[in-house]
UniProtKB/TrEMBL annotation:
Family, per entry: Belongs to the class-I pyridoxal-phosphate-dependent aminotransferase family.
Entry keyword annotation includes Transit peptide: no
InterPro entries hit by this protein: Aminotransferase_I/II_large (IPR004839), AspAT/PAT-like (IPR050596), NHTrfase_class1_PyrdxlP-BS (IPR004838), PyrdxlP-dep_Trfase (IPR015424), PyrdxlP-dep_Trfase_major (IPR015421), PyrdxlP-dep_Trfase_small (IPR015422)
Cofactor(s) required, per the database record: pyridoxal 5'-phosphate
Name this protein carries in UniProt: Aminotransferase
Amino acid sequence: MDLTKRFNKNLNRIEISLIRQFDQAISEIPGILRLTLGEPDFTTPEHVKEAAKAAIDANQSHYTGMSGLLALRQAASQFVADKYNLHYRAEDEILVTIGATEALSATLTAILEPGDVVLLPAPAYPGYEPIIKLVGASVVEIDTRAHQFILTPEALEEALQEQGNRVKAVILNYPANPTGVTYSKEQMQALAGVLKKYQVFVVCDEVYSELTYTDQSHVSLGTYLPDQAILINGLSKSHAMTGWRLGFIFAPASLTAQLIKSHQYLVTAAGTMNQYAAIEALTVGKDDAEPMKQEYIKRRDYIMDAMSSMGFEIIRPDGAFYIFAKIPPGYNQDSFAFLKALAYEKAVAFIPGAAFGTYGEGYVRLSYAASMEVIQEAMRRLKEFMEEHAGEH
């Protein structure tokens, strides 16, 4: 019996992440230096781990409510108020999720229907589009390359006008994966001025909010567009807790009352002992990201200097932990081919820009969530590669 043709036909519209495909393809190369995945090389702070152990010892191993522990939602409410001047009620405007990924899945499956359009500034993280396609909606990319990967109010307005009532949502990720760019207060206000004229949801992926490197702290669109914004955040990047799978949805009570339905039937609730660890992270450890951030800045600056000297064009990242670099003229502009050669010849792995959509081709993304020693050796090998291949194309 062949049941393969009875799957959801929308599965044919998606594939396994090109990031994961490429990373897996080169992982067996001996001595490979992988600056590929967006995972902090730091470990979860000790006090957070101790809080989880204490919860286990106290037999905190039963279900919590679907929204998550009230104490955690209170901690999350206080955290975003203190850090970003955002105000969400713990009782009915915050949901605890299994990472930011589940928060996105719960949100997008709740708001989208077949035929809907989602606007996405590109190049963009490739995790959004598959969820959108699974529910029968589609993505329209907005090319941001001409404006240093920043979505301008003019480009946003043009896309909203062009797509009309089909647009159900806009996704904004800041600081952004893969480019590392983020938005100033003035830029946020300008985007909000456009969006408030349209009956659309704005899904704000702010999982890198604690890794903002500008003098101005992280600015959330939720400040200027509270009725339309659905904020996604989590502890994976800020507290080096990728494996704990702890995320959050922040939204007005009227929206949260609907979002909890999809969240409930996807997962019931986040892990209980993990939630106790998260309370510790957001209270005692609310500034745990600071030493990591300082180290990321050093690594960013080192890579920018090294790659710029090799001819790569780089827009300075103001957050996250990625460099998105344009392959210099005279080299293979096929990002997969360029990086496959680099991996097999020099045992250095980045992610092809084409993995981030139509407008990522010709670029490479590397993660500097790796030790300085690894980064320095990777840059040395990259320089050799660039010298050996100069002028071939």
